[in-house]
Design goal:
Elements lengths: L2 E3 L7 H16 L3 E3 L1 H4 L9 H9 L8 E4 L4 H12 L5 E4 L10 H6 L7 E3 L5 E2 L2 H11 L10 H27 L20 H22 L12 H12 L12 H4 L15
Parallel strand pairs: 1-2, 3-4
Antiparallel strand pairs: 3-5, 5-6
């Protein structure tokens, strides 16, 4: 990874905040940056031998941000698309869900809920929900806005994300996790086992069909779900609709609004679009 040392005067808050803005911009272009007062601490008072050694021994880069992904699962796919759309360079580690790697001790120490996605920030904070990760990344890397530029737009996008999550994504999960032989006793994600309830799968499929109608109406005559540009709401909708292939629920030909939406402009590898 490319590295950058951010140098400049640090005499007052204004100068330090100005350098912090420059650092965020540099990091948004994929640089691993070092900002002295942020990463090694601001030296005040007498410049003692101890303070000098602390700075001399400090590694050039801070703890890296790490994204724990799974390239076969829909939830981390949303974050992966968000990261790629924003052109952020983040160290990524794949967690093999098919072989239950998320249940291993090393991962349980990172996320006791045993789920992906997970983002470990440079400050070593843990984010383990897709939306919370995206909100954090939007604040850290605001240059390509995906979560709204005004309060009105932010509210609309979050509203649609939650709507898709609650009424489509979770309905698909209910259908899949309560019927798949591979998920026997794993009807709910997490550290504990739960028996499958076939009735929930039946209800889940009906919910999917019902929400298809709602989403089709919302997209009628539009290219994007919210506003006149691509946002995180489109990511949530795209991944959820594509997730229906796991339960073999096709989009009816009559739903032209839903079928006509083009996502070909996405900056994704071909493997992520199939």
């Amino acid at each position: 990874m490319k590295k950058a040392y951010i140098a400049g005067p640090l005499f007052d808050d204004h100068e330090r905040k100005y350098l912090e803005k420059i650092t965020k911009l540099v990091e948004s272009y994929g640089f691993d940056s070092f900002l002295p007062h942020r990463d090694a601490g601001l030296v005040t008072g007498e410049f003692t031998r101890e303070k000098k050694e602390k700075i001399s021994n400090y590694q050039f880069y801070r703890k890296k941000m790490i994204f724990y992904d799974c390239n076969t699962a829909p939830s981390p796919r949303r974050v992966r698309m968000f990261i790629q759309e924003k052109k952020i360079n983040i160290e990524t580690k794949n967690v093999d869900l098919r072989n239950s790697e998320q249940m291993e001790d090393w991962f349980s120490k990172i996320n006791p809920r045993n789920t992906v996605p997970v983002l470990v920030s440079k400050e070593n904070n843990i984010f383990y929900h897709s939306l919370s990760i995206c909100v954090y990344l939007e604040q850290e890397f605001p240059e390509i806005n995906l979560l709204g530029s005004t309060n009105e737009e932010k509210g609309q996008i979050i509203n649609l994300i939650n709507d898709v999550e609650s009424n489509l994504f979770l309905a698909i999960a209910d259908c899949l996790r309560n019927t798949s032989k591979a998920m026997k006793n794993r009807a709910i994600t997490g550290p504990k086992n739960f028996e499958q309830i076939p009735e929930l799968a039946i209800r889940g499929r009906e919910r999917v069909k019902s929400y298809f109608e709602i989403l089709n109406q919302q997209l009628s005559g539009k290219s994007f779900l919210c506003s006149d540009r691509f946002t995180a709401a489109d990511i949530w909708a795209f991944v959820a609709v594509d997730f229906t292939r796991a339960i073999k629920e096709p989009i009816p030909d009559s739903m032209t609004g839903l079928r006509a939406v083009s996502y070909t402009h996405l900056t994704l590898p071909t493997s992520d679009l199939v």
